[in-house]
Amino acid sequence: MTIAQRINQIRQHLPSHVRLIAVTKQVSPDIMRQAYQAGIRDFGENRLQEALSKQEHLQDLPDICWHFIGHLQTNKAKKVLDSFQWIHSVDSLSLLQRLEGYSVELSNPPQVCLQVKVLPDPNKYGWTIPELLQDLPRIEQCTQVKIQGLMTILPWGLDETETLKAFETTRDLAQELNERSQLQLRELSMGMSGDYHLAIKAGATMIRLGTILFGERLK
Ligand SMILES: *Cc1c(COP(=O)(O)O)cnc(C)c1O
C-alpha cells in the first residue's frame, strides 16, 4: 500500500471533528511530501533539530501546521515557539511559564496542550492529576499562551478496557478543570497507532499517528 492509500483508508473512518496529526519522527521529507500530497497538513515532530531541518526541506509547502509533541527543555522553548503552531507536550509549570513569558511578544502565540499522566508512569513526563489540580491557580494565570486542551500518552501494556478508561479519565479531567477554573480546554490530544480508535470513542479531538501511516521506525 502506498502512503496515500494508508492515509485515505484511515481518514475514511475518522469522525469529521477528529484532527489527524501525522507523526513524522524519523520519516524523510520525501515521504512527508507524499503525505502532504495525500492531504495531510498537520505534522507532529518530537525533536527540534530534526524538525527544523525538515521545515527547511518543505518550506515550499506553506500551509503545513507543525505540532511539537516531544519533551521540551526550557532552554529550547523559544526556538520551538518560533517554528511550531502547536505544542502538545507542555509537561511542567516551569515550561508553561517560560512559554508564557515569550508569548507576550508574539502576535501569534502558540496553542498548547497540558500533558497529563492519568496513570502512574515513571518513564513519562507530565503532570499527575493531583499535581495539575495543585498548579491550577498558577496555570490559570498564563493567559498569553493559548491553553487549548490536554494531551496524554498511556503506559505500555494496558488492555482495551483499561485504555478506554484512561482516555475517559483524561476527558473527565478536562471537564473538571473547566468547571474549577477560567480555562477552556476543548482539545483532547490522545490516541496513537495502537489505541486511537479507543481514544476517539472517549472523545479525542486530535490523534497522533506514526507507525500505522509510515511503518515501523528504526527504534
Ligand atoms: C511517536 C509518537 C506518536 C506516534 O506513535 P505511533 O505508535 O507510531 O503511532 C504519538 N505521540 C507521541 C508523543 C509520539 O512520540
TrEMBL record:
Its cofactor is pyridoxal 5'-phosphate. CDD domains: PLPDE_III_YBL036c_like. Gene3D superfamilies: Alanine racemase. The keyword Zinc does not apply. GO terms for molecular function: pyridoxal phosphate binding. The keyword Nucleus does not apply. Keywords: Pyridoxal phosphate. The modification N6-(pyridoxal phosphate)lysine is found at K25. PROSITE patterns: UPF0001. Residues 3-216 form the Alanine racemase N-terminal domain. PANTHER family: PROLINE SYNTHETASE CO-TRANSCRIBED BACTERIAL HOMOLOG PROTEIN, PYRIDOXAL PHOSPHATE HOMEOSTASIS PROTEIN. Belongs to the pyridoxal phosphate-binding protein YggS/PROSC family. HAMAP family: PLP_homeostasis. Pyridoxal 5'-phosphate (PLP)-binding protein, which is involved in PLP homeostasis. This is Pyridoxal phosphate homeostasis protein. It comes from Gloeothece citriformis (strain PCC 7424).
